[in-house]
Write a structure and sequence with these properties.
single chain; 4 domains; seven-stranded parallel β-sheet; 26 helices
């Protein structure tokens, strides 16, 4: 990249960092220059940027200067909110003093993330076929509140998206929003000019920086109709999550209750009742077959299962053909919603009936009974042929290198396919992990079993939490394990407040954890990633066991078998890589600022004794490591004393 362009990147970065009151980091400068060069050369780039590097500005600055549209995709709403509310405004403010023209930016989400004015003002049928006007009870209060908010948003040009809405449940939000299939479309809707989703779409098509999420990126990659505006570059933040999020977006499920609901909603809009009756009968047939289908992966669907899937598909197809023309006075939204639901059933049944070796089909128990799931065995080829095929892609995260290599991530996202050229760099972290953190592995404990916490593990847990004076984030492999650990600590250390994920909203628990430094927060996957609690509140991160996927996980099991079929090590390629990623994310909850100090305690001796332990350990931050319990207890007591004295 020419020196003039490099200088320009540095000048804008310097202005942006100053605008947020931050400190420029060498790794941040290195990252910004590498991203700008990749955009200029059209070369894919992987950037591992440790916590505290300031990676958001590291890719936002070159994106701003690129001159063509750049799409930025995040995995979580938290990071999306940070980009839109803090980082991009600060960048644009700082860049205004350096550039003659400041590019525009926009946020684009899936249609169901926006309130639908047609649904709010006209109404659509609920499951009983009556119009929802003002529902009664708690749900009704939610919907009334959301209606008032949406009208205020429409009047004052607000975004009308879920994130800006008042407190509500998932069920409440479904009453005021529609999916893409349920939407009437701008050409038919009386409120198209006010539509929040259409306004967001128009703004995105006019912007140079477009912020979206992994799921919408996946939908755009899979669909025939583009959901994102044309773009030259994609920056994928939290890229360690990409393959998982794309898999989630491509996973479908089919259950009898949904098929029956589709038949019921379609009945009033068909030329005759026969097609709806046939679809309802197909629902009963599906339920009957599923009662005789064992939960778990289905390697070879029986003829009976294939027949019933074909029956559901054909019945739904017949319903689609039998929908009557729109009638004067008939609520268009009701008809569109019914069509959308029936077509969803058709597409899912069709895909399941035609499933191949590249898919994983399994049965599972849900709240309303047995259901089928189908997921792609691998999304790498899909990503290789879509996301990476005709644009430059920058992937970044604090945890892209597993076991000291980018290979696992490269394989998972498809960069290893074809002739895609890529470069991987690690710009490090501003933290001195060797001085700020201790990694303690309880080597003396027996390997974890399935029976719950052993007596030795319970004693270890209590000793560590007591030495730390609380101040503990407990990351557990299951909700049952988290609850069992909480019960043990509450019983033996009654003066400490133990907060457990699921006992209240996570945002409320996090706030209480921060406000009471001597409290503990125990939970599962939702706490392993994204939680940012710096300072003395969190000086001990406890990990009860190595987070391998469940042995009966249908998708992970199928992926392991595929690797083994081709002569590879399925355990290391799939299970160990999965565990390494989560371990790195979990350990990363400890050191969030340059003055943070603490201990990551892994209560699974296999990290020190098993052959794969060195691979997993190589994925963790380079903290000072020990297996000596007395040393760690002493360190935690000193940290607790210093933190307590600082508050006096």
């Amino acid at each position: 990249m020419p020196e003039a362009e490099t200088s320009r990147v540095r000048d804008v970065l310097h202005a942006a960092v100053g605008s947020v009151g931050g400190v420029e980091r060498p790794g941040q400068v290195e990252m910004a220059e590498a991203v700008a060069a990749a955009m200029e050369d059209g070369r894919h780039l992987l950037v591992q940027a440790g916590t505290g590097t300031g990676k958001s500005l590291g890719y936002l600055v070159p994106s701003l200067l690129h001159g063509k549209r750049v799409v930025i995709a995040t995995a979580t709403l938290g990071l999306q909110h940070q980009l839109v509310q803090r980082d991009i405004p600060a960048l644009l403010s700082g860049a205004a003093d350096v550039l003659d023209e400041v590019p525009s930016h926009a946020v684009l989400k899936g249609r169901s993330n926006y309130a639908c004015l047609h649904r709010l003002r006209v109404g659509v049928p609920d499951d009983q076929g009556t119009l929802v006007e003002i529902p009664e009870g708690t749900l009704g209060a939610e919907v009334v509140s959301l209606r008032e908010w949406a009208e205020d948003q429409a009047e004052n040009a607000g975004p009308g998206d879920r994130e800006s809405a008042p407190s509500h449940t998932d069920r409440g939000w479904r009453q005021v929003s529609v999916t893409a299939r349920e939407c009437l479309g701008a050409s038919k809707c009386d409120f198209a000019l006010e539509c929040f989703a259409e306004k967001a779409k128009a703004k995105a098509h006019a912007a140079q920086l477009v912020v979206t999420n992994h799921s919408l990126l996946a939908i755009d990659a899979q669909g025939d109709v583009p959901t994102l505006p044309e773009h030259d570059v994609v920056v994928i933040d939290e890229a360690h999550e990409l393959a998982s999020r794309v898999t989630q977006a491509a996973t479908v499920e089919l259950e009898p209750v949904v098929v029956e609901r589709a038949a019921r909603r379609a009945r009033g809009h068909l030329k005759g009742g026969r097609a709806a009756d046939d679809l309802a009968d197909a629902s009963d047939a599906l339920a009957d077959v599923l009662t005789r289908t064992e939960p778990g992966r289905i390697d070879r669907p029986t003829d009976e299962l294939l027949d019933v899937l074909s029956l559901v598909r054909d019945s739904a197809r017949a319903c689609m053909s039998d929908f009557s023309s729109e009638k004067g006075g008939e609520p268009d939204a009701a008809r569109q919603q019914a069509r959308g639901l029936v077509d969803d059933v058709r597409l899912v049944a069709e895909r399941m009936a035609a499933s191949s070796a590249s898919d994983v089909l399994w049965a599972a128990e849900g709240r309303s009974g047995a259901r089928l799931h189908l997921a792609p065995l691998d999304v790498a080829s899909m990503l290789a042929n879509s996301v990476f095929s005709d644009r430059t892609v920058v992937l970044t995260s604090a945890t892209l290198s597993l076991g000291g290599s980018f290979d696992a991530v490269v394989r998972s996202v498809g960069l290893g396919f074809g002739d895609h050229e890529w470069t991987g760099i690690d710009v490090g972290s501003p933290f001195d992990y060797g001085k700020q953190g201790v990694l303690y592995v309880a080597k003396h404990l027996p390997p974890p079993g399935r029976e719950g916490p052993s007596t030795q593990l319970a004693d270890e847990l209590v000793d560590l939490v007591e030495a730390a004076g609380g101040r503990t984030l407990g990351l557990f492999s299951s909700r049952r394990a988290a609850e069992a650990a909480a019960e043990i600590v509450r019983d033996r250390l009654p003066d400490l407040e133990i907060l457990v994920q699921g006992e209240a909203h996570l945002s409320e628990l996090t706030q209480r954890f921060v406000e009471d430094e001597h409290s503990c927060l125990f939970g599962t996957l939702g706490l392993w990633q994204g939680l940012d609690v710096p300072g003395a509140t969190c000086q001990l991160v406890l990990i009860d066991r190595i987070p391998f996927p469940r042995p009966d996980d249908p998708l992970m099991g199928a992926r392991q078998r595929l690797v083994e079929k081709h002569g590879g090590n399925g355990f290391m390629s799939v299970a160990a890589s999965h565990a390494a990623l989560l371990l790195a994310q979990g350990a990363g909850r400890l050191i969030r600022r340059v003055d943070d100090r603490g201990v990551v305690a892994v209560l699974d001796s296999r990290l020190a004794t098993a052959r794969y332990g060195s691979y997993l350990a190589a994925s963790l931050p380079p903290m000072w490591r020990t297996t000596d319990k007395a040393t760690v207890i002493g360190a935690l007591k000193r940290l607790d004393q210093v933190a307590s004295e600082a508050r006096v």
